Amino acid sequence: MGKAEKGRIVGAILLMAVVGLSSLGCSKIPVVGKWFGKSEEPTPSIYPTESTLPPPPDVVKADKPGEVVPVPMEGVVEPAPDDLGIPEAKPMRMEPQQTVSELQTVFFAFDSSELDEAARATLDGNYQWLSEHPGIHVLIEGHCDDRGTVEYNLNLGQRRADSVREFLIQKGLDPSTLHTISYGEERPLVEGSDEESWAMNRRVQFLVY
Amino acid sequence: MTRCSLFPWMLLCLLIPAVSAFPQEQHTITIKPTSFVATIAIPDFAPKNGSQTISPGAFSGVIYRDLEISGFFRRPRNQEFVNDTHRSDKRDGKINFPEWNRLSCSFVLKGIYNLTPEGLTAECLLYDVKTGQRVFGKAFSGYTKKIQRRLAHEISDEIVRYVTHEPGIASTRIVFIGKRGKSKELFIMDADGHGQTPLTSDGNLAATPSWGYESSEIYYTSYKEYNPDLWVLRLSDGKRGVISSYPGFNLSPAWCEKTRRIALTLSKDGNSEIYTMDPRGKNLKRLTFNRAIDSSPSWSPEGNRMVFTSDRSGSPQIYLMDSEGLNVRRITRQGSYNDSSVWSPRGDKIAFVSRQGGFFHIFLMGVQGGGWIQLTSGQGNNEDPGWAPDGHHIVFTSDRTGKPQIYIMLEDGTDQRQLTFEQSNQSPAWSPFLN
Question: Which fold has domain A106-208?
Answer without folding.
Answer: 60s Ribosomal Protein L30; Chain: A; (3.30.1330)
